[in-house]
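Box 3.1 — From sequence to structure: Glycosyltransferase
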Amino acid sequence: MDSQSQSHGHIVMLPFMAHGHLIPFLALARRIRHQTPFVVTLAATPLNLQYLRSIISPYDADSRIHLHELPFRSSEHGLPPDTENTENLPINQIVALCHSSVSLAAPVERLISDITTEEGRPPLCVISDVVFGWSTDVARRLGTKSIAFTTCGAYGTMAYVSLWLHLPHRSTDAEEFSVPGFPERCRFHRSDLHRIIREADTTDQWSKFFQVQLKLSLASDGWLCNSVEEIEPLGLDLLRKYLKLPVWAVGPLVPSDLLQKSSPISPDSTLRSIQKRTGKALGVSLEKCLDFLNSHGPNSVLYISFGSQNTIGPGQMMQLAIGLESSGKPFIWVVRPPLGFDIKGEFRPEWLPPGFEDRMTRSKQGLLVWNWAPQLEILSHGSTGAFLSHCGWNSIVESLSQGVPIVGWPMGAEQAYNVKMMVEEMGVCVELTRGLESQIGAEAVKRVIELVMEEEGKGGEMKRRAYAAMRQMREAVKEGSDDDRGSSVKAMDDFVRTILGEPAKDTSSSSS
Ligand code: UDP
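Predicted structure (token representation):
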């Protein structure tokens, strides 16, 4: 440990084993490093650590972010060899991966003890994923504070936690029901729930993991949230009242150049730097993407992507293609093999209408990107007008931070709750369909694209609201003296006071 950690303090961070969690954890580590004098140790299993190492820049490596390997053998948990991440894992094995994470308690305990011995005092706190509730006990036993970090939004987190802990849909036959912690006007519908929670009954493996781990996280000293006070007032208020803990909204956790006034497509947005950031090979050159976007007018292009690991059904893929073509609107579509085909397999033309890709290329209406696109660069380009998304929280934050409204097609996790919040509370989203099994027709695709792209009417209103959210997100990370500081910067100050054991200032951002 260096002398800096001796004098200022140390924070240990424990991300869940999924890219959608590792990325915001690293972003949070960078934010902490930027705003505080503390040393951060990110601890993960060997392959996840390898991924973090591949996307961490030399700037991070030289600074106060350390990486620590937690030993893990997937075969001991009934998982295929070298399985340490949800990526490409069938859903029945994801639950086994979740349970396997409890085995990390012993190596985490050793890590905290070693830091304590070396520095003569325990770390200031352990920041762990909300689903790593086991770490709350470890932290307490070793004399450090335990902080949970939710990589989701506040409303989505609140819904996820309350639905898992109470399973309210199991005690009614009604299609619509109220959810503990939510006001009556926010009733949920059975179809908002993914099959695994719809069928959960407390004895299944999913309930056994989430009910235990989330309950343990309720006993932590506070929660950090990748959200912004001004964009999620309801979600944050509900979460604070439910948890009765401080909740610090320190988002948006996106690369800082995305929050500058001008376009973040800077000269150093090269292929190498994008691949470095995401750890993925791009399915298109950045130049080709920019040429396509530059050849279309402001706010005219629809960007389509289903996140880092999702795909859609073969029939849905066909209808989406027909609907896109008949809308006549320009689009960039990240294409993956549809459900039922090898996710790592080759592209097959029969997944799309005959001659589709050729026609789209010749007419310059569409650009198909195989598997992985430079999402941040696309969303931040002035020609991108809307985002058809599965509504993972990272994608939402990235889109709204650029003022881009959303067409929702939620797949799982808390994505349908995110859509509900964005439709009912923020007015920045319209839902197209949900899940892999829905019978989506090309006509519906065409209608929704036309709606979201219109300059006036509902589409125009969604755009105005997305712009307002963008301004609020940028204000939230504004640094300056006292009153000038944005809400997320102030929330981080308050979090620091709490882990140092100093009295909290009276800020709304953390009040429980
Ligand atoms: N992403 C990307 N290019 C792609 C698809 C995804 O850069 O073609 C990135 C995207 O910018 C986001 C993350 O992958 O940061 C997806 O996270 P999200 O929470 O939206 O969804 P998840 O993959 O966790 O379901």
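Summary of the box: The chain has 21 helices and 15 strands.
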